[in-house]
Write a structure and sequence with these properties.
The chain has 199 residues and is of the alpha+beta class. 19% of the residues lie in helices and 22% in strands. It contains 5 helices and 9 strands, in the order E-E-E-E-E-E-H-H-H-E-H-E-E-H. It has helices spanning 107-110, 114-118, 130-138, 148-153, 183-195, and strands at residues 42-43, 46-47, 52-55, 63-71, 73-78, 89-90, 144-147, 159-165, 170-177. The strands form 3 sheets. Strands 6-8-5-7 form a 4-stranded mixed β-sheet. The chain has a 3-stranded antiparallel β-sheet with strand order 3-9-4, with helices on one face. A two-stranded antiparallel sheet has the order 1-2. It is elongated. InterPro entries: LysR_subst-bd. This is LysR family transcriptional regulator substrate-binding protein. One of its GO terms (molecular function) is DNA-binding transcription factor activity. Residues 1-13 have a biased composition (Basic residues).
Length: 199
């Protein structure tokens, strides 16, 4: 999914289809650390959107957060990694690997990671997209943990996604400014769960 910084042109709708982006702000998309859509309704004190779809964790002290669904997360490994042929791995299996994302994004790994215990960890470079992260994975610079849908969408032949036992799911939520109570926001919040993927 491309990064968008400019509003999209209105698209034509089928009869009865509703445009959920008719609020006061155009839709914006930005990839976060896990390949997620991460655009809070208010960032840096500026209201940016009526409603946002985000992956936790985020600071939940200000916005209203409505859980939508969860999905498994997978470890993405270079194709030549010793664990790449396994049907599943554990967090402990990954303890000796370098994580190419902030350790707090994967607290289960952070709590067992050898490099964090010994202080021998490499810096995590500033990565601006999942594609950049997967390029480093393919080059053997480390591993990453992604939501299953993101790993499937960004799959490449020189990296493999492996399920991880003992790691929490990715949680997707609908978020809006708690003090906003407009009808379009409530309509969207009511309708969106029916559009969420099913197992």
């Amino acid at each position: 999914m491309p990064v968008r910084s400019a509003p999209r042109r209105p698209r034509r709708h089928a009869p009865g289809e509703r445009d959920w982006y008719t609020g006061s702000f155009p839709p914006h998309r930005r990839r976060g650390d896990g390949g997620d859509l991460l655009r809070l309704p208010v960032q840096d004190g500026v209201e940016r959107a009526d409603v946002s779809i985000i992956r936790l964790p985020v600071d939940q002290s200000g916005p209203h957060v409505q859980p939508l669904f969860t999905e498994p997360r997978v470890a993405v490994l270079p194709i030549g990694h010793p664990l790449a042929g396994r049907s599943a791995v554990t967090v402990l299996d990954l303890a000796d690997d370098h994580l190419l994302q902030a350790p707090d994004a994967v607290p289960e790994w952070r709590d067992v990671a050898r490099e964090l215990r010994t202080g021998e960890c490499d810096d995590v470079p500033a990565l601006h997209s999942v594609e950049e992260k997967l390029e480093l994975v393919a080059a053997g610079a480390g591993i990453c943990v992604l939501p299953l849908s993101t790993a499937a969408f960004c799959a490449r032949p020189d990296a493999v996604a492996v399920p991880v036992d003992g790691i929490g799911p990715s949680r997707v939520c609908l978020v809006w400014v708690a003090t906003r109570r407009s009808r379009p926001i409530q309509d969207f919040a009511d309708a969106f769960p029916s559009l969420a993927p099913t197992a």
